[in-house]
Amino acid sequence: MHRRLICDDQPPDFTLPDFKLSDVTMADACRVLEALGPMPGEALAALVDCGLSDAEIGQYFKLPHQVITTLREHWGIASTD
User: Fold this and answer.
1) Is 5 helix (H, G, I), strand (E, B) or coil?
2) Which one of 2, 23, 37, 78 has the fewest beta carbons within 10 angstroms of its own beta carbon?
3) Cβ within 8 Å of residue 60, ≥6 positions away
């Protein structure tokens, strides 16, 4: 049986220019998990391995590129930018 996170309907604010992982709320985390799936680090690494930039990945998942950059750096995934 899979458990699904129940996220509130408030959209998170990823627009801060100095966004840090410590700024992530539970709603933000839900949005990232819903976008990248149950293994977000592996999904992000695969997309980077395919040559996609943070901006392209963010655009595809409708997440700001700052979020993608922050997560990629946090998980130690090298950039293609």
Assistant:
1) coil
2) 2
3) 47, 52
